[in-house]
Amino acid sequence: MRSKFYFSMIAIFCAITFVQPVLANNNEPNPKEVAADPATEARIAEIEARVNEIKTMDRSNMTKAERKAMKKELKELKKESKALGGGVYLSVGAIIIIILLLILIL
To answer: What's the structural domain count of the chain?
Structure first.
């Protein structure tokens, strides 16, 4: 009985895993396009401009403290852009796997 159950779970897992890439489409909205208000869009544009400016800088003649400050600024910009960008997305397959694991544990 248990072997049939495990075999069926493995079969479902494989079916979901192999079907997901086929079902994935590029029509999903871009997080930049889904921004809530103009202020958020403006801040995201400022962050992108600053990151591009930092990437084009010549770091060879900077002191160690300046490079460290620049790295810290980049980390803060990344955290802020993630906070403005959106949330956590779970695929259908991941949700099914989590549910199955909870069923097996309980």
So the answer is: 1
Residue 60 domain boundaries: 2-24+45-105
Q: Which residue is listed with tokens 């403005």?
A: 84
CA–CA separation, 103 and 6 (whole Å): 12
- Give 28-61 pLDDT, tens digit per residue: 555 555 546 788 888 888 999 999 998 898 888 9
On whether residue 39 sits in a domain, the answer given is no
Cα–Cα distance list, 36 to 30, 50, 84, 86, 103 (Å) = 13, 21, 9, 10, 38
pLDDT attached to residue 35:
46
Query: 91 with 21: CB under 8 angstroms?
Result: no
